[in-house]
Specification:
single chain, alpha/beta, five-stranded parallel sheet, about 40% helix, globular, binds ligand CA2
Length: about 140
């Protein structure tokens, strides 16, 4: 079972800025823990990070032929991107939206997600554990369907 994990804009800065909100682990730390966790639950994960909306759209389109599902933290594009929503809808893969912070506890502009309505599920507020919860939820879903 192959899963693509997509990290959106600014998440390449994890562990380098704002550790109070986003934690002290770097993106490399998180990806390597996710690879370990994936092995234990019978999944094979690949990673993609981009600060560009178009590149994320292309990664979602390309995933159709290679992956069984996607875990995505769309970052700030969560709250703005109809293009990412449309790509998710048309790719037909199950997609889990994850957020490190609890976006519902934050500013009003973070309360709207263009992705949630086309996602299989949403996990928000568990720190970097949101990725692990999202991955295991997706893998469980794929095993049962
Ligand atoms: O909580 C999340 O995971 C977010 O997707 C993170 C986005 C934010 O715009 C969303 O509303 C919620 C921001 C990612 C910024 O990541 C940084 C990491 C370290 C230092 C600076 C920014």
């Amino acid at each position: 079972m192959k899963i693509l994990i997509i990290h959106g804009p600014n998440l390449n800065m994890l562990g380098k800025r704002e550790p109070d909100i986003y934690g002290a682990k770097t993106l490399e730390d998180i990806n390597s823990s996710l690879s370990e966790c994936a092995k234990k639950i019978g999944a094979d994960v690949s990673f993609f990070q981009s600060n560009s909306e178009g590149e994320i759209v292309s990664a979602i389109q390309d995933a159709m032929s290679e992956f069984d599902g996607i875990v995505i933290n769309p970052g700030a594009y969560t709250h703005t991107s109809v293009a990412i929503r449309d790509a998710i809808l048309s790719c037909g893969l199950p997609v889990v939206e994850v957020h490190i912070s609890n976006v519902y506890k934050r500013e009003d502009f973070r309360q709207k997600s263009y992705v949630s309505a086309v996602a299989l599920g949403v996990i928000s507020g568990f720190g970097v554990n949101s990725y692990f919860l999202g991955l295991s939820g997706l893998v469980e879903h794929l095993k049962n369907n």
